[in-house]
Amino acid sequence: MSKIIIADDHIIVAQGIAGLLKPEHQVLAIAKDGDELIELVKEHQPELVITDISMPGMTGIAAVAALKRISKDLKVICLTMHNEQEYAEGAIAAGALGYVLKHEATDDLVDAVNSVLSGQQYLSKSVKVADNSPSLSARQLSVLRLLVQGKSAKQVADELYISPRTVEFHKYSIMKLIDAKTSAELIQYALSHGLV
């Protein structure tokens, strides 16, 4: 019986997930946001975390990155309503092994848990893969999205657990890749490609 912690700011959703996993797995605790999730993981040391991406405060993807720094062996599944490719890529880049859509959780979640616990990656079948996807890495996409939200290099660095210098490097690399000369062009590119 594996030990699991669930994070979702909607307690009913979290309880529903817990119900799907019992009695085969032991749900140790439920967190309502990323900060509480990190504290609970430190306290309980689970084998697996199932986390929403959209939560108050620290996002699920930022929490995944933080959790992997606490324990590189911890396995993580992101459970979300976002079926866009860049969200899935961002989650995997942060260290998640599984990416499951909430509306498919009844069918997919148990399979995802079993796959991820055995060290295999699991993505919901209907996660969209864009045909005209820009050739940016998942990390570059994460940096770009936060910059477009008006965050400073330091704020982006804090959220992604990287240095401001690394943020500037990614920004420079993205601008070179998409041939943008200014931050305004960078924002326009992100908007026109549906990256924000």
TrEMBL record:
SMART domains: HTH_LUXR, REC
Zinc is among the record's keywords: no
Pfam families, A to Z: GerE, Response_reg
InterPro entries: CheY-like_superfamily, NreC/VraR/RcsB-like_REC, Sig_transdc_resp-reg_C-effctor, Sig_transdc_resp-reg_receiver, Tscrpt_reg_LuxR_C, WalR-like, WH-like_DNA-bd_sf
Entry's transmembrane regions: none
Keywords: DNA-binding, Phosphoprotein
Modified residues (4-aspartylphosphate): D52
All residue ranges annotated as the HTH luxR-type domain in the record: 129-194
Superkingdom classification of source: Bacteria
Residues in Response regulatory domain copies: 3-117
Protein name: Response regulator transcription factor
Organism: Shewanella youngdeokensis
